[in-house]
Design brief:
CATH topology of the largest domain: FAD/NAD(P)-binding domain
InterPro entries: DPD_II, FAD/NAD-bd_sf, FAD/NAD-binding_dom, Helical_ferredxn
Catalytic activity: 5,6-dihydrouracil + NAD(+) = uracil + NADH + H(+); 5,6-dihydrothymine + NAD(+) = thymine + NADH + H(+)
CATH superfamily of the largest domain: FAD/NAD(P)-binding domain
Helix content: 25-40%
CATH architecture of the largest domain: 3-Layer(bba) Sandwich
Enzyme class: oxidoreductase
Keywords: Oxidoreductase
Number of strands: 20
Number of domains: 3
Radius of gyration: 24 Å
Number of helices: 16
Subunit structure: Heterotetramer of 2 PreA and 2 PreT subunits.
Structural class: alpha/beta
């Protein structure tokens, strides 16, 4: 990738404009079948036993405390070690019904595996994510759902959004005997699991297979192509259902704030990944020769690696702060570099260089520095050639569908209490759309679980019914070690 450094004020780029080289079919036709092969192939039964042998089965295990959903990790690993992967899967899924996807996409290197005592002592943690995938895959392959529904309650709950938070809440509510209708804006469920995760992390249509597995519980119906604020309203849902759970995610994308970012070759990374995930023929995807990705999170890493795999010559991620400030983990950053992606730090976008037809052919960045805790520009500039630019600087919540509902916001997202209750009686929210969220699949699953327990307690006026929940609904509980009770098992009903 050609570049030219400027000192002092930014001048015009000396890079030749030329025509952008954006096209499909950059790879030989035969390569597309394996371009997004599984990043972490599953463990064999023998490998799973060997790996489970490495676990110390700690009491008050740090790994369990680091798991946002509170999975009893030592227990499920012991169950694998004892030759009971189905029991291990039940232990996992009792706390995290999307445990199969989370085993694939969770940043375990910054969660459970980071605090594993073997990581602390030896720098080589137990492969918790791999073992979790092994157990859940084994159970899903049987076609048997591990849980049974409680008796019908006659209550009906509306869930907005079929992403991780919505699916988690719906399943937990259905297990309690409630009927659930999910309203999903897209033609498929799964949320970011279906549309936003890198293709090499979740292969063979896993998001849809997992969704089908979840729906086996019964009592859940999904209405697709139903957008809040257009096809449905908060007021109508509140009037027509016993409770409402909002989990619509973050539909918007932050802008660069630069002239020319509406150019056809300046794209939202989230949208591009969604198109890639839904493409029937990968060779038709338009890929640039010289690509610049602006951002420092997982979306930036995912789009960079995928475009590199699809044949881009040069892919550069540009981030305004240092490496340690990137939201993407050190492991993910290294993964990008292994795939040939260049990561540049301490640069912020200054101007999009355009040709006469409005096409961007280069970007000028200003060097930045941290001075007295503030990010400032240094007055020095760098211009990078780019025929395709991806914005990956975060997603935004759209409050318009909530206008007039009375639902309070905080920091641009829905304000909720510890149980997921909003400021409006009968309405809960969770996942990426709520204030203070961690924007992780596993955190969204926990939000949905907590809200579902709170909704159930509020509707039944029986907070004690929540306790011992996992043991009561586990299919064949007498034949398997019981799952650890949720850390949120004592969620109390609302005072309304």
């Amino acid at each position: 990738m050609r570049s030219m450094k400027h000192t002092g004020s930014a001048g015009s780029s000396s890079i030749d404009a030329g025509s952008p080289d954006i096209r499909g079919a950059r790879l030989p036709a035969g390569d597309y079948a394996h371009v997004f092969d599984d990043l972490h192939p599953p463990l064999s039964p023998h490998e799973a036993i060997v790996e489970s042998d490495r676990c110390y089965f700690c009491y008050d295990a740090p790994c369990m405390n680091a798991c946002p959903t509170g999975i009893d990790i030592p227990l499920f690993i012991r169950q694998i070690n004892a030759g009971n992967p189905a029991g291990a899967a039940r232990t996992i899924l009792a706390e995290n019904i999307l445990g199969g996807m989370c085993a694939r996409v969770c940043p375990t290197e910054t969660l459970c595996e980071e605090v594993c005592v073997r990581e602390v002592a030896e720098g080589k943690p137990v492969k918790i994510g791999h073992l979790q995938r092994y157990a859940t895959d084994m159970l899903m392959a049987t076609g048997n759902h591990p849980f049974t529904r409680a008796a019908e309650t006659g209550r009906h709950i509306a869930v907005v959004g079929a992403g991780p938070a919505g699916i988690s809440a719906a399943h937990r509510l259905a297990m309690h005997g409630h009927q659930v209708t999910i309203f999903e804006a897209r033609p498929k469920g799964g949320g970011l699991n279906e549309y936003g995760i890198a293709a090499y992390k979740t292969v063979n249509n896993f998001a849809q297979r997992e969704l089908d597995f979840v729906l086996q519980i019964g009592g859940i119906h999904i209405e697709y192509n139903q957008t809040l604020g257009q096809d449905i309203t908060v007021e109508a849902l509140k009037a027509g259902y016993d409770a409402v759970f909002l989990a619509m995610g973050l539909p918007g994308v932050n802008d660069l704030g630069l002239a020319g970012e509406d150019a056809p070759n300046v794209l939202d990374a989230v949208d591009y990944i969604a198109n890639l995930r839904q493409a029937r023929n990968l060779s038709t995807l338009p890929v640039g020769r010289d690509i610049v990705v602006i951002g420092g999170g997982m979306t930036a890493i995912d789009v960079a690696i995928q475009t590199k795999k699809l044949g881009a010559n040069n892919v550069t991620i540009v981030y305004r702060r240092g490496q340690e400030s990137m939201n993407a983990s050190a492991y993910e950053q290294e993964l990008a570099q292994i795939h040939g992606v260049v990561i540049r730090h301490w640069l912020q976008p200054h101007a999009l260089e355009r040709s006469e037809d409005g096409i961007v052919h280069a970007i000028t960045f200003e060097y930045t520095a941290n001075r007295d805790g503030k990010l400032v520009g240094t007055g020095e500039y760098l211009t990078l050639e780019a025929d395709q630019v991806f914005k990956a600087i975060g997603q935004t919540f759209d409050p318009e569908p909530l206008r007039g509902s009375g639902i309070a916001l905080a920091k641009g997202r829905i304000s909720v209490d510890a149980e997921g209750r909003t400021s409006v009686e009968g309405i809960w929210a969770g996942g990426d759309c709520v204030a203070g969220g961690k924007d992780l699949t596993v955190a969204s699953v926990e939000d949905g679980k907590v809200a579902a327990l709170s909704i159930h307690a509020a509707l039944t006026s029986r907070p004690e019914a929540v306790e011992g929940f996992a043991e009561a609904v586990l299919s064949g509980a007498a034949h398997h070690a019981p799952a650890a009770p949720s850390r949120h098992a004592t969620v109390q009903p609302g005072s309304e």
